[in-house]
Amino acid sequence: MTTDEVLTEFLNAFRHNADLRRAAAATVRAIQTDPTVRILHQSRQSFLAGLSLYESRGDKAYSLTDCISMATMRQENIVEILTHDRHFTQEGFTILL
What we know:
The chain is mainly alpha-helical and about 100 residues long. The chain is built from 5 helices and 4 strands; from the N terminus they run E-H-H-E-H-H-E-H-E. It has helices at about 5-15, 20-35, 45-55, 65-75, 85-90, and strands at about 1-5, 40, 80, 95.
């Protein structure tokens, strides 16, 4: 499972190189058509839930996308994540990488 916001962040990471940009877009298109991947779409509710967490963690360096992901994970009862971002351990999630 992933979110539109995570896919946006993934695409943003490759925006400076035309070849990588094309490859990233192709990867996102493949993810969108993969029947084994569930994508939660960006919504006003997901934005506001992420914003609330973002506001409440002023002592952390969490991005808004991280906060939206964390809020979504809690909503979906997900405790494990594929990431290198140690912020997720600070919120009690288990990093699988």
